[in-house]
Amino acid sequence: MQLQWAFSGRQIGHFYNRWMVDSDQLMAQIRDWSRELGFSQIGVSGVDLSSAEPGFLDWLAKGYHGGLHYMEQHGLKRARPAELLPGTLSVITARMPYLPHDTPDDWAASERTRLGRPGEGVVSLYARGRDYHKVVRSRLNKLCERIAEVVGPFGHRAFSDSAPVLEKELARRSGEGWQGKHSLILSRDARSMFFLGEIYVDFDLAPTAAVADHCGTCTACIDVCPTQAIIAPGVVDARRCISYLTIENKGAIPVELRALMGNHIYGCDDCQTICPWNKYAQKTEIPDFDERSPLVGQQLVDLFAWDEQTFLKRTEAARSGASTTNAGCATWPWRWAMRCARPAAKRPKKSARSCVRDSISPANSCTSTSSGLWNKIRPERLPDKRSRLPFQESRPSASGRLASATMCDSVISPAT
Fold it and tell me: 174 and 168 in contact (C-beta within 8 Å)?
């Protein structure tokens, strides 16, 4: 998509206005408008991301993107905003928190408690509300309308995890936060429970300063990851990441990872709920992010018995935009089959197990019937949860991981 430039006819006056507007005053107005729209912070980045290209290319070369083939389809346009959208001179970055306004203060501990209930299917916090792509992008476009009222028509395009954009790099450079060891952006005031958005614009704005890293020596997120997907600080191997395996992965889940995934059925928040910074995570007043997914709190044995008709009926209200319904009903039976097949989970009744027989190929790649699937993943064939990756000398026990987080938590307070 080419930027639409305002260079001719009646647009010349608007183009002139753009350069007459004080940049600092414009940014102050943009920040005021953004807060009205539910954004917690606005930043500005330049378009030269060349220093990030080697790391991105190395990540791809090592295959850490797994089946995310779109990550390589556009070449380096992901790191070159002006090539993705010719004419781009600046990038406005935005942060939008998504924890519902009524989230209790002990939400992180409460979410970790869910993991100790093997019969319950756990859905990632971000996916319990409306599809964030639509919410964030829609509000970014409204922000663009407000900007146009001041500067006149201008070339732009809004993104929210919806195009080849290095959004975390742009966020880091523009001061939205630092990149944590779990690879997510962390902020001292918003923590990490927020969505990112960007607006590519065709006029210059002064970049906002990056912020310092405040993770220190804490490794809680690395230690707690069930599948050891964080292979180095800031580097995630998607092929081992539970979020990837339960959402993006189109094939069978590797046998050696199935037991380690616990009762996660859509996404994973383990590296965020254990992070001591998130004890003080910002909340949102946007009702779109209130819990609407019909899958939250459901028992796996009940979900396992849902056929297509039941899935469509139960998710009818949420399908207008809930993130969890985007995967479609065809992929759900084998997700639940994997979770029900864990040693600690309650085994579904034979009538319920039979519903997965006609599900899509990932389940059938394990076995031709759900009963066979159960037998294929017998407890004695599951790997030891304490198995280690080559780069690690040792990994703490579950109690050790929590102790590590507690130790990090002791040096962090809302005032720091």
Answer: no
| Those residues with Cβ within 8 angstroms of residue 244's Cβ, 6 or more apart along the chain or in another chain | 66, 68, 238
Q: In this structure, which amino acid lies at residue 339? A: R
**Would you put residue 138 in left (φ > 0), alpha (ψ -120 to 50) or beta?**
alpha
Q: What confidence category does residue 371 fall into, taking pLDDT thresholds of 50, 70 and 90?
A: very low
3-class state of residue 191 by DSSP:
strand
Structural domain range at position 160: 9-103+126-201
SS3 390: coil
Could you give the CA distance from residue 214 to residue 188 in angstroms, rounded to a whole number? 8
In terms of phi and psi (left: phi > 0; alpha: psi -120 to 50; beta: otherwise), the region of 262 is left
- Amino acid at site 328: G
pTM confidence score: 0.79
CA distance 200 to 82: 9
Enumerate the active-site residues.
161
Q: Is residue 394 part of a domain?
A: no
Q: What single DSSP character describes residue 286?
A: -
Locate 390 and state its tokens.
């080559």
63 in a domain, yes or no? yes
